[in-house]
Amino acid sequence: MSSLPTTTLRVASMLFKSRRGATADNVARTVAAIERAARDGVGLVVFPEACLTGGIGETASSDARKIRRTELRALAQGIDSAPVLAVADAVERTGVAAGVGLIEAAPNGELFNSYVVCLPGGERHVHHKLQPDGARHLARGNRFTVFDTRWGWRLAVLIGGDNYLVENARMAALLGARLLVAPHARTGASDAASAEWMCRALPARAIDNGMFVVYSDGVHDDTQAGDHAGERVAAAIVDPCGQVIVQDGQGTRDDDMIVADLDPALIGTSPGHRWLDARRPDLYARLATGRAREMPLDARGFEPGTASARGSVPVSFAMVRRDRTHG
Q1: Using CA atoms, how far apart are residues 73 and 83, in angstroms rounded to an integer?
Q2: CATH number assigned to the domain comprising residue 199
Q3: What is the rounded CA–CA span in Å between residue 235 and residue 173?
Q4: Per its UniProt record, what Gene3D superfamilies does this chain match (predicted)?
Q5: Helix (H, G, I), strand (E, B) or coil at 183
Q6: d(Cα 162, Cα 140) in Å, to the nearest integer?
């Protein structure tokens, strides 16, 4: 487990509505929001899932299942593409770190629902969505993304449906994360229930794991007319005791922002943080198999021969530095 941070961090969560394929406009509004966050003294601003390119949102509906690979590829951008570099330049210019989402075209030809956290100094940390529910053309990530920052805070990223599984947030905490960045998005009113579920579930993730959570919801409009222009989006910042510090569930204005100062002293007071060291991994090995009901228990409470839950877990600590020639 990493040490506790010692400095207060001011964070912002954006209520953001992007248009699918209108990347230039989405990027321009993202950069403007970063500049506004700098004027408010924000250290980290969190944008929704796939905010730069637009995407398919968090849904298992027909929208996700019917979208063609060619449509996704037309949206996709590389990690070193102009839209990402424009955000990285804004981060460098303002000193405000920013997390942004996009449909990523990987060098090997795979497509990912990705989230990039750009830090001042040129660092970029990339998370590939672990649970791209219903999106048959998107590859699944296979690494947890946990990294340290110059503020002394260790961050983790889980995109949308990654947060639906309690194990993912727990692994982030066990890897030392003190702040969970939780971007989310949907394609319209039919997916509003997923956003409401996130607002209820994330306080539980926070208190269970003794960490702050910053949640940013967005809407992806697939029309130029802006059919979802008046639709409700949500944002929330939650403390390690499960208390919502600030939220906005009624925001219909584009590019609204909520802000909170994260006090690291609250982490030590969280019941979840105090109980992490009391875990008994030998009892939980059955979780890794997915066949708990089928397995007889021995005297120790788990299936003989099952691998210990203390085993190694792949973790992403990859860091990408900007090519300064793009500045």
Answers
A1: 15
A2: 3.60.110.10
A3: 22
A4: Carbon-nitrogen hydrolase
A5: strand
A6: 11
